[in-house]
Amino acid sequence: DDGAIFHLNGVEAARLRMAPGITNFGALAQNLATEGQPDLIAFSTRSLVGGENTLAVEVHQATPFNADVVFGLSLISTATATNQPSLINVQRSSNGLELTHVGIEGRRYVLESAPTLGANWTNVLTFTNNAAQMLIQDSSGTGGSSKFYRSRLVP
After folding, report:
1. Helix or strand or coil: residue 109?
2. Which of 136, 141, 130 lies closest to 151 in space, CA to CA?
3. Can you tell me the distance from the alpha carbon of 81 to that of 66, in angstroms, rounded to the nearest whole number?
4. Cα angle vertex 137, ends 135, 141, to 5°?
5. Is the pTM of this model over 0.70?
6. In this predicted model, what pLDDT tens digit does every residue of 56-89 receive, in sequence order?
7. Which of 54, 45, 38 is nearest to 13 (CA)?
């Protein structure tokens, strides 16, 4: 109707026209919605678990003593399940090499490099993927020599 707070498995996932911070049952929504118009919300899926999940929504009015409450929900989910990351868009820059790492948000990876495919791999960077795609810079990638990269999931 006017505002809502969405909880996924007990963890707040999104707010719609609600002030940040602690709320209670009497908290009022901000900025009235256009009646009957849908809102699209994308929220973090970090609290999803394998199997059954629970989405709970608390609906808030924008004015006290308002008699109408309307709520409808359509949920669309897209899941990507791979433990094999990708490195794309490798480019030289003034700071060395830039690579785009594609992996699973919240998972830990190690980026390694080698001068040739038969050589030993050395650790360039160990990191947690904060987004599905991350830009990584390797300042040791300056100069004209060839370099091979790989990324792997850290157990």
Report:
1. strand
2. 136
3. 44
4. 140
5. no
6. 999 998 888 887 888 888 887 766 656 678 888 8
7. 45
